[in-house]
Write a structure and sequence with these properties.
Layout: E1 6-14, E2 20-29, E3 34-38, H1 45-53, E4 60-65, E5 68-69, E6 80-83, H2 95-105, H3 110-123, H4 139-151, E7 157-161, H5 169-186, E8 189-194, H6 197-203, E9 206-211, E10 214-219, H7 221-226, H8 231-236, E11 241-244, E12 247-248, E13 252-255, E14 258-261, E15 270-273, E16 279-281, E17 287-296, E18 301-306, E19 313-317, E20 328-332
Helix pairs in contact: 2-3, 2-4, 3-4
């Protein structure tokens, strides 16, 4: 199984009520790449997936698979596999029946169907589950059956719509890892929609962050997190501390609670950092404030520190120290982790 390049050229999609779901989208997804489409409800991510699938047709623009224009081809002629949030399995068929359903419709011989089914059951870790009814399966097992069914006809493209959203947190974490390994093994071009930033970070070779039907940023997970394009991306992906600048000093920036070291160019009005970039110090630091809350999160603790700004600072600490509410907290930050953002 090998992937194919997907290209959307100037695709626009509006609905009957006048709402524009996707604005003039230009997007290239490389063969074998896993692209995560991330964003809040109503941002256009599911419509983009449906344009790729052939479930929606763009009002303007074209969709290409490789060099082939598939804009007017329906889903059944695009050679895609789809996995839905609600699985969409047939309750009257057993596991094997669900997996080979599409192959049977295509006229594949029974012996070939059975062989392909056995391969897929092995692939998704359900080797002994072929004769089980769908009602006998857990949520995670049903999702694996849905994935096997989508992969059965060896599609050029795999599309996943919130594939893990219906699962509990622990199972979602495990299947996320398994799905990542499977996609890498298959080398298939995969596009999945999610509102879960952790899922997008873990599975996507690149992440497309969408806002109001437009591309807010398209980049690697690392760049999305460390070099967000604007305040929307930065605040949607991870947590953020904002420091309005009160005064520009010779060696830094005066902000509420102290002075930050600044090595960047220009005279910024606001600088930002992530919670893990603030370090709790024993004595002196760049900032001082009072602890208003501490929350245990396993490997780290989340501290809320009031430095006199509109919002307390978020500090992720791994030192294991339990601080007394109201105590003074000194914080340090390295200048290279501070950044500015476009509005």
């Amino acid at each position: 199984m090998s992937g194919t390049t997907i290209r959307l050229a100037g695709c626009r999609k509006a609905f009957a009520d006048g709402t524009v779901a996707v604005h003039d989208l230009d997007l290239t997804i490389d063969a074998g790449e896993t692209l995560a489409i991330l964003g809040p409800s109503g941002c256009g991510k599911t419509t983009t997936l449906r344009l790729i699938a052939g479930l929606e047709r763009p009002d303007v623009g074209q969709v290409f698979f490789g060099d082939t224009d598939v804009t007017r081809l329906p889903i059944e002629r695009r050679d895609v596999g789809m996995v839905f949030q609600n699985y969409a399995l047939f309750p009257n068929l057993d596991v094997a029946g669900n997996i080979v359903y599409g192959l049977k419709i295509r006229g594949m011989a029974p012996a070939e169907r059975n062989k392909r089914c056995a391969e897929l059951l092995e692939l998704v870790g359900l080797r002994d589950h072929g004769k089980r009814g769908i009602h006998e399966l857990s949520g995670g097992q049903r999702q694996r059956v849905a994935l096997a069914r989508a992969l059965a006809p060896k599609p050029r493209v795999l599309l996943l719509d919130e594939p893990l959203a219906a699962l509990d947190a622990q199972l979602r974490e495990r299947l996320r890892s398994e799905l990542d390994q499977l996609l890498r093994h298959l080398g298939i071009t995969a596009v999945f929609v999610t509102h879960d930033q952790g899922e997008a970070m873990a599975l996507g070779n690149r992440i497309l962050v969408m806002e109001h039907g437009r591309v807010a940023q398209l980049a690697s997970p690392r760049d999305i997190y460390q070099q967000p394009a604007n305040t929307f991306v930065a605040s949607f992906v991870g947590n953020l501390n904002a420091f309005p600048v009160l005064e520009h000093m010779p060696l830094g920036l005066k902000v509420s609670g102290g002075e930050l070291p600044w090595r960047g160019g220009g005279l910024p009005a606001t600088v930002y950092c992530r919670p893990e970039h603030l370090r709790v110090m024993d004595s002196e630091g760049h900032l001082r404030g009072r602890l208003v809350g501490q929350f245990f999160q396993g490997a780290q603790s989340r501290l809320l520190v009031d430095v006199g700004a509109d919002q307390p600072l978020l500090v992720d600490s791994t030192d294991g120290v339990i601080h007394t509410p109201g105590s003074l907290i000194a914080l340090a930050v390295e200048p290279q982790v501070l950044f500015t953002l476009a509005s």
